[in-house]
Amino acid sequence: MSADHSDDAARRRKVLKSEAEWRAVLEPMQFEVTRHAATERAFTGRFWDHWQAGTYRCICCNAPLFASETKFDAGCGWPSYSEPLQAELIERIEDRSHGMRRVEVRCQDCGAHLGHVFDDGPAPTGERFCINSASLSFSAEPGAQG
User: Which of 67, 95, 127, 144 could cross-link 121 (Cys pair, CB 3.0–4.6 Å)?
Assistant: First the structure.
């Protein structure tokens, strides 16, 4: 999770756009969260209390990131998942900002900041992916009730 790792991941991105191109296709909060690692306020995002069956995708590139089956109520005010759909879809980067030591998670395909992962989640993974709603879109399973 060094800077070199992050640079290597950036070179492998499938989706590359300039800041102006991202700004043109994203809403202001989506842009600030995904491109500048901002955080939406707790209990304000559209998916923190969303329980419909389906797939949560990257708002920037539509990569499938999390399944509704792994979503749980962590009581933190952000959507929380016990694991990604596939480990290789998520890039993990050491984050020492704001006087803390955390692990930032980004979309592997486009580099969008998603949130952070913590080691206080449920079994079997023990992980809690704490994700900003602004970094996600949602695809419902056919016939799923909201």
Answer: 127
Q: Is 60 a catalytic residue?
A: no
* Residue numbers in the chain where pLDDT is lower than 70: 1-12, 144-146
Q: Could you tell me how many residues make up the chain? A: 146
Tally of helices (H runs) and strands (E runs) in the chain: 3, 9
Residue tagged 């923190």 (tokens): 48
Strand order in the sheet with 90-95: 71-72, 80-81, 128-131, 113-118, 102-107, 90-95
Tokens of 53: 């069956």
Active-site choice (58, 107, 110, 130) = 130
Which of these, 15, 4, 3, 11, lies nearest to 110 by C-alpha position? 15
Taking alpha carbons only, the member of 48, 30, 26, 49 closest to residue 39 is: 30
pLDDT of residue 8: 57
